[in-house]
Amino acid sequence: MNDRYPAEVGHSMESVFPESRELAAQLVGQGFSGDQSVRVTIGGNGLVELVDMDPRVMRRGSEELAELAAEALRNAQEDWFRRFAEATAPLREERARVIQERLRKSLEENAQMYAYRTREIQETLAKLSQDR
């Protein structure tokens, strides 16, 4: 699980993907406790928007209730991060494609420059051997 809040993730990715902050703000994460008695919803700002508990869960001890709430919150955060990864996948794929294309062009230019410099060196060496 990620230790950062959803809003921080959206903000940190903004430098690479300006659209990510808007995407992050629109996402909602939802999680349940293992027994489905507690449901937590978090918004794109990383804050809890809703905690819903089955009334029967109130009969349990405070420690168990706290564990159920924490489990539901963790699951809501994981859901939010999964949704964020899915929503930003096309952005990351496009960015990767652009970077790969730039790299390919740069490698082609370097190969051409290497070939040109190799020919220059060979011509210079040939001239030097003729001058002897």
From TrEMBL:
<dbReference type="Pfam" id="PF02575">
    <property type="entry name" value="YbaB_DNA_bd"/>
</dbReference>
<dbReference type="InterPro" id="IPR004401">
    <property type="entry name" value="YbaB/EbfC"/>
</dbReference>
<dbReference type="InterPro" id="IPR036894">
    <property type="entry name" value="YbaB-like_sf"/>
</dbReference>
<dbReference type="GO" id="GO:0003677">
    <property type="term" value="F:DNA binding"/>
</dbReference>
<protein>
    <recommendedName>
        <fullName>YbaB/EbfC family DNA-binding protein</fullName>
    </recommendedName>
</protein>
